[in-house]
Amino acid sequence: MSPVRIVLKEQVSRGQVEDFAWNDGWSMWDMMEGVGLEPYVKIYRTQDDLTAAHYIEDPTVDIHYFALEGADVDGTARQIRAGLPTYSRAEVLQTAKTASEPLELARTVRVAGVTASEPFDREIFEIITNAMSNPDPRVRISGVAATAFAAWKEFREPLERLRADAEPQVADFAQVVLRGLTEKNWKES
After folding, report:
1. CA dihedral sign, ordered 129, 126, 55, 63
2. Which of 113, 105, 110, 106 is nearest to 149 (CA)?
3. Are residues 165 and 116 part of one domain?
4. Strand ranges in the chain using DSSP code E only, listed in sequence order
5. Which of 18, 35, 84, 178 is exposed most, by the fewest CB atoms within 10 A?
6. How many domains, in total, are found in the chain?
7. For the chain, which ranges sit under pLDDT 70?
């Protein structure tokens, strides 16, 4: 099962995350300094040691978020949502409908992808696939990036279509993501 991811709002700093973790009694388990396009990752264990909370600053999508795994993912998610500003599903859906600028839409699409998890979510899928046919290549690239997080098999056809995109950067990125998802996420058993 894929981890549950909770996207933090832009104004949340690394220091605020560290204060939150400290105040909730989490212990730091591991840390990886991000260099270049590598993400910064700090792994916490919750006070009851049942859940791992990976705090990630991902420069490739310009988003910072928690990825949660363990026995009490739901409880840990509630803690994070109560203690830090996060994006709700409803907010992502609304912003995708009302975004007036391509860069605002592109960011919302990336947030939608990062927050996507199992099971398949038709509304999030439509946000991402609509972005993949947007006239602005920055929005299409964000759509492709979002598929790497959601990783639903339903993205195969839209990614295959984008391999022939008129914008070489979009086509190349679609090919890379399609190959990665095929090799790592969509293997037939």
Report:
1. positive
2. 113
3. yes
4. 4-7, 27-32, 40-45, 51-58, 63-70
5. 35
6. 2
7. 1, 187-189
Domain limit, last residue, from 83, 118, 141:
83
Entry field: residues in the chain? 189
pLDDT for res 188: 61
Residues 14 and 98 in one domain: no
Distance from C-alpha of 188 to C-alpha of 84, rounded to nearest angstrom: 39
Residue at 44: amino acid letter: Y
State the Cα–Cα distance between residues 38 and 46, nearest whole angstrom.
Answer: 25
Boundaries of domain holding 30: 4-83
| Predicted TM-score (pTM) of this structure | 0.92
Domain boundary among 19, 52, 83: 83
Verify that 40 and 105 share a domain, yes or no. Answer: no
**Dist CA 56 CA 6 (whole Å):** 10
- Angstrom distance (rounded) from CA 62 to CA 46: 26
